[in-house]
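FAQ
Q: What does a multi-component entry look like?
A: The components come first, one per line:
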Amino acid sequence: MTLVIGYGNPMRSDDGLGLYLAEILEKQNIPGVAVMTRHQLTPELAEDMIQYENVILLDASSSANDFKIEKFEKKNVKSLNSSHHLNPSVLLNLIEGLYGKKISLSLCTLRGENFDFGYEISGTARKRAERCLPLLIRHIQEAAYA
Amino acid sequence: MGNLNSGENMPDKVIKINPVTRIEGHAKISLFLDDDGMVKDARFHVNEFRGFEKFCEGRLFTEMPNITPRICGICPVSHAVSSAKAGEMIMRVSPPRTGELIRRLIHLGQIISSHALSFFHLSCPDFLLGWDSDPAKRNILGVAEKYPDLAVKGIRLRKFGQEISERISGKKIHLIGIVAGGMLNSLSAENRDALLGWIPEALETTRLGLDLFKKYCDTHQEEVKSFANSETMYLGLVGPDGTHEVYDGKLRFTDANGKIAGEHNPADYLQYIAERPVDWSYLKYPYYKPMGYPQGVYRVGPLARLNVATKMKTPLADQEFRNFRALSDGKPVHGAFYFHYARLIEILTCIEQAKEILSDSQILSKQVFAKAVRNQAEGIGCSEAPRGTLFHHYVTDENGVLLKVNLLIATGQNNPSMNRSILEVARQYVKGPKVEEGALNRVEAAIRCYDPCLSCSTHAIGSMPMMIEIYGQDGRLLNKIERN
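Then the predicted structure of the entire assembly, as tokens:
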């Protein structure tokens, strides 16, 4: 089973891309895939994540790549400078350390254009999402059969 | 600010501000030394600027319970509650009893969740692993490695608090469902039973936290008593007979000896609370007007709420409250370290109250919303956020469009005291321009006692993004230490 978690701030325009993508995916009704949305990654998400073999995170990015997939391993833990908002590596460490469970964790990011205050996803980001959706779905399917 | 999505009756408006996306909590501290190299003064700088009060002008007041929760990712419910109450004053309406019960329940859940994070994830690493331990491990992962059972219990306690919100508001993100007039959603029997099922575990975990804290205090008595313990006034909501309150009540100010300095209607807050700007921070210095500044400096939050209260609402918490008050023979407990104790006692009462509400015979009623329109221009809503007393004040035109918004946030009211606490701890542990890491951690811990929410952001586990600047008597910068 696969869990997709889209997260971000829907009040900061394209910062809500993770949520936007998650809502599109939910409507696809892909078998064996559950979809969740969150404002940010927090420790208690570990309890939800351990119910699945694969977890795919969706977030916005301001980097150069239109669409990027990053896989996480336990050894990739970075220093902790935040508690209310955790990075994926920390969550993975928590899951393996606390629950003894190994899961496949990856982060898919879609480049945003506008991170100003607002409720709307920009037109450019929407088109990018449309274009990259098949890549995302393929990744989800590959993760499920890996 | 960018374009805001126009509602059906809203004119288009574009206000441009350009902050950085996803601002993390950032603490800057300046320490000033005298000729002998001892700390003379300390400043805690808050550099975030949010602008909610300004960019909400022009919105409908009814939108605010949906907008203002975005101020904070940790305590969105408190903002929604205060906002809805301000709207209800404008509408001159009260929610039906079940609507209020559900609202109280979701509010309790948020306090449980927030306090659990503060204690079990942010503060525990110091208690369990040591103040001077390796900072790379002095965090949630370090606790998880050495005390996995405790780490899991702490995570699950926070999850219980969040599950209350999710089972009431549904699965969609940010749909808290708190609106002026009541709630958008009622509670199903299935969700009620699921939440009741959590109660025994939640109580047990809280007891574990209390035992852990008390054990630490017993073995570190002098350190705990002397940690940032200067006296202040206190402010908190109380019920009719002085009972601890987090949802509604009157404002009670007490002096440093515990004498009631004033009890006021929250709607009159501007008559009693003034704010003084400072030039090194965006956060102002609030104080109790009748006492003037600086005598009127007061604290809010768990420590303050327990210091102003006469008793707790629930039996287990009240028993623990008496132990708390015994620390200072019934007078206010001033040491900042005891914020953690107060937080745990509040978790306890919130769990007990949640059980009572879930067991109420009317909790499943569908009567959760009272419809009304704008009936007066101004509304003020007040509730206790996890960090302290929170005010939302709206002034509207005849169409309900906001002309003016004033938000008095909990953390801001603790600003003068946070500065003072940092100074006290720095004087105790910082000697000269060279700063040891353990001293840095203790200065950070002074801030952590208050569990500040620096404009929605985060504060760190064991290694807060921090800059400390040390100045000599002549104002010359002697040393600068940056972390993350």
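Q: Is there any commentary attached?
A: Sometimes. For this entry: Chain A touches chain B through 39 residues (CB under 8 Å).
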